[in-house]
UniProtKB/TrEMBL annotation:
EC number: 4.2.2.19
Keywords: Lyase, Signal
InterPro entries named in the record: PbH1, Pectin_lyas_fold, Pectin_lyase_fold/virulence, PL-6
CDD domains in the record: PL-6
Gene3D superfamilies per the UniProt record, alphabetical: Single-stranded right-handed beta-helix, Pectin lyase-like
Gene: cslB
Molecular function (Gene Ontology), one example: chondroitin B lyase activity
The protein's name: Chondroitinase-B
Signal peptide per UniProt: 1-27
Pfam families linked to this entry: Chondroitinas_B
Organism: Roseimaritima multifibrata
Length: 411
């Protein structure tokens, strides 16, 4: 009987050993060599835990992959306890990798350019982390999704005081060959106190950065339930230059910019709220759906449909706005026009570099193609009577059943 009990205990112990999640290292790693070694040895379900402390100039690469049920995790031993600074940067190329509970303070990456980059990663994620006063080189971002990355997520993070871009989905020449990053989800983040750059290149979120043919690639990005507070980097808070993306339920407060579809087609902008911003929504391209948005006290126009240029393949083209649905939006007290159909008419640009490689385009460009075949209905606009809906020589649009209220007549 005793031998039977011993055999039973031994069998249970062996089963427990097999089923117990493998852990790479105990809590409290505090040097970069040990951290990278633990990452290199990681198996699905492992956690690499960093001790509380400040870590300068750490560069980590996570190439190993977890699974959907058992991701590989890199985290601080307590939220906010592990603080990176200097040129610290993390590159994730593995699938199902979770980075969480870290702080990046005044990081200025050198060789790796972005603070965190998901490169060809699938279903990897950064969450519950803080990026404060990042100093990113021009043309890069604090967090980048690049290569053939798919279904990556950035959520519940805070981006404060970023120089240049906070978050970027990279669509480049390699994307034309191999396909772009797809399925990125950006949700429940706070972006705030972004200082003005005084030039292009400081969008808070940038999805793609080029015109035709890059803008025709479908990236299926979801940007939802984020908060943008005083994001004043440049005129475009969010800049979308690809197709088939969704922007919904975001809140913009006191920002000196707009949500801009700069290139691309068939994106959805729904149920966002803009309060005290320079503008609301600006459209170029076709097939967009803009519904249920609220824009209050804009210092510019609420919703703008831009004139397009004749050369849609120009590197700086404004695509004609066509076949869009703009419905059930509410615009209150815009200092400019509530809903502007045909902004930018006959605006001209000239740049000597456009006539050179790699562009090989005309050095001049003019916006002459009016918005057309758009359905603009059931919107409620309150403001100055002559600025509620304005159409600048753009007659080929369906405008009906809108509620237009002269604010001077409101008691």
């Amino acid at each position: 009987m005793t031998n039977s009990i011993c055999r039973l205990v031994l069998s249970v112990s062996l089963i427990a050993l097999v089923l117990r999640p493998h852990t790479t290292a105990a809590a409290g790693i505090d040097n970069v060599v040990a951290a990278q070694a633990s990452i290199n040895a990681a198996q699905p379900g492992d956690e690499i835990v960093l001790a509380a402390g400040q870590y300068d100039d750490w560069e980590l690469t996570i190439e190993k992959s977890g699974t959907a049920e058992s991701p590989i995790t890199l985290r601080g031993e307590a939220p906010g306890a592990a603080v990176f600074s200097g040129s610290s940067a993390i590159v994730v190329t593995g699938d199902h990798v979770l980075v969480r509970d870290l702080v990046f303070n005044a990081c200025e990456p050198k060789s790796r350019r972005s603070v965190i980059r998901f490169d060809d990663a699938e279903a990897s994620r950064v969450t519950a982390s803080v990026f404060r006063d990042s100093r990113i080189k021009s043309g890069s971002a604090v967090v980048e999704i690049t290569g053939k990355a798919s279904d990556c997520r950035v959520d519940h993070c805070r981006f404060i005081g970023t120089q240049y871009l906070s978050l970027r989905v990279v669509v480049d020449d390699a994307s034309l060959r191999d396909g772009p990053p797809v399925g990125t989800r950006i949700d429940h983040n706070i972006f705030r106190e972004i200082p003005p750059l005084g030039a292009n290149g400081a969008e808070t979120i940038q999805i793609g950065s080029r015109a035709y043919p890059h803008c025709e690639l479908e990236t299926f990005v979801m940007v939802e339930e984020n908060v943008f507070i005083r994001c004043n980097g440049e005129a475009e808070i969010i800049s979308d230059k690809t197709s088939e993306n969704t922007f919904r339920k975001n809140l913009f407060l006191d920002c000196r910019g707009e949500l801009v579809i700069r290139h691309g087609n068939r994106s959805t902008i729904a149920d966002n709220r803009f309060v005290g911003c320079r503008g609301g929504i600006r459209l170029s391209g076709g097939g967009h759906t803009v519904t249920g948005n609220t824009i209050i006290n804009s210092s510019g126009s609420g919703i703008q449909l831009y004139y397009g240029v004749e050369d849609s393949k120009h590197p700086a083209a404004y695509l004609p706005v066509t076949n869009c649905v703009i419905q059930t939006n509410t615009i209150i007290n815009a200092s400019g026009v509530g809903l502007m159909i045909g902004a930018n008419r006959n605006q001209s640009w000239h740049s000597a570099r456009w006539a050179k490689k790699p562009y090989n385009a005309s050095a001049s460009m003019s916006a002459t193609i009016a918005p057309a075949k758009n359905k603009i209905s059931e919107n409620t606009i309150i403001g100055k009577s002559d600025r509620l809906i304005v159409s600048d020589e753009a007659p080929d649009n369906e405008i009906r059943d809108n509620v237009l209220i002269d604010s001077a007549r409101i008691p």
